[in-house]
Amino acid sequence: MTPLGTDSTPPDPIKTNNDVSAPGPERNAAGGSGTSNVTAQAILRAAAKVFARVGYDAATVREIAAEAKCGKPMIYYYFKDKAGLARELLLVPILELTARIEQLLAQPLDPVERLERIVGAIVALDRDDDLDRMRFAFATLFSPLNAGFRDQIDKSSCRLIELVDQACQPLVESGRLDPSRRPHLVAAIRGIITVRMLDWLFSNQPSSPELIRRDLELLLYGGLRSEPESGDSPPIER
Asked: What does UniProt give as the signal peptide span (predicted)?
């Protein structure tokens, strides 16, 4: 059954392409990137609002055009279809972030500094655009609808976690991390990323490189003193 207010045709499948520079829905007829155009940016913001409000499946190009105050042909010109809009909003930023992290992994950095930069880059992804894009992303990840679209987001997100895991390997090789604790470290870093994104999304509390550094320091080196300082409460007995 087609939801009320939606197009009668089924949603277009979202296509992925690891080469974000290749021609795709976000490229205009002149061969340039649609997102470099002011009109295209307005369309993307409008699409993010509509997707966040009603979801990808229920959203229509007509609603997006009305929100952007432009004609439907303009959307087709810059993004080809609704799938192109969703890809530009969610998949393209993740693919570009993946490329940046792969570059960090190739650089001769201290392992802890590399982790700080990688986690900071992932957390900063949510501030590249407005809140509606992140609401759309979270709704996609936690909604049972449009499983095909979510699967593609999941695959891209899993690649980011694989890269975080790779960034932890030098800590093992240098003897600074017990190999058996590596999965737990990766899980804890995922927790930091999620919490910091949620802080920004729901509490408008942006993270910073310094905050990420302190998060990782607490995670890697611990924050409890072996003995309480004068005036502190005594340690809890087991």
From this structure: none
